[in-house]
Design brief:
4-stranded antiparallel beta sheet, alpha+beta, about 160 residues, 5 helices, 2 domains, Alpha-Beta Plaits
Length: about 160
C-alpha cells in the first residue's frame, strides 16, 4: 500500500507538472520565449528600415517623374506653332477622330450635351473631337481617366506642338 501511495504521489508531481518542470526546472519555455521576442524585435527593426528606404525611393522617383514632366511641358511650350489651329503645348483628350467634318461636328454636339467642352482639332485630313484640353500633362492624365470612364475607353491624348 505504501508503494502505491508513493507511486501515486510521484506521478501526481511529475505527470501534471511537465509544464512546471519545463518552465521552472529546465527553463526551456522561458528561453524559447526570450528567443522569439528577440527575433520579433529584429524583424520589426528590419521592417521599419525597409519602410523608410521604400519611402525615400518613392520620394526620389516622384521627384524624377515631376522633373521629366516639367521638362517636356517646357519643351512643348517653347516650340513654335507647326499646325494651324492647334494650341502650342496643349494636351487634347481625343474621344473621336473623323475624316468627314460634319461627323466631327455632330459628335462634338453629342459630347457637349454630356457636359464637356469639346473642340474640333484638324490635323492633316483628320478632325479630332476633343472632350477637354489642358496645358499640363499631369492634368491631362488625370482628365483622361475621367473621359475614359465617362465617354469612351479608347480616348487618348493628342499633344499640340
Amino acid at each position: 500500500m505504501k508503494k502505491i501511495l508513493i507511486l501515486i504521489t510521484i506521478s501526481a508531481l511529475l505527470l501534471p507538472g511537465c509544464k512546471f518542470m519545463n518552465e521552472k526546472v529546465f527553463k526551456k519555455r522561458t528561453a524559447a520565449k526570450e528567443y522569439t521576442a528577440k527575433l520579433e524585435q529584429e524583424l520589426a527593426q528590419k521592417d521599419a528600415q525597409f519602410e523608410m528606404e521604400l519611402s525615400e525611393i518613392k520620394q526620389i522617383s516622384q521627384a524624377k517623374i515631376d522633373s521629366i514632366i516639367n521638362y517636356y511641358e517646357n519643351e512643348l511650350a517653347n516650340k513654335g506653332p507647326k499646325r494651324g489651329s492647334i494650341g502650342i503645348g496643349t494636351f487634347y483628350l481625343v474621344v473621336g477622330s473623323f475624316k468627314t467634318p460634319a461627323y466631327a461636328t455632330e459628335y462634338a454636339d453629342k459630347i457637349s450635351k454630356m457636359g464637356y467642352t469639346p473642340e474640333i482639332v484638324t490635323f492633316g485630313s483628320w478632325n479630332f473631337v476633343s472632350a477637354e484640353s489642358y496645358t499640363s500633362l499631369k492634368e491631362a492624365l488625370a482628365g483622361l481617366e475621367v473621359v475614359r470612364t465617362g465617354i469612351t475607353p479608347g480616348s487618348w491624348i493628342f499633344v499640340g506642338k
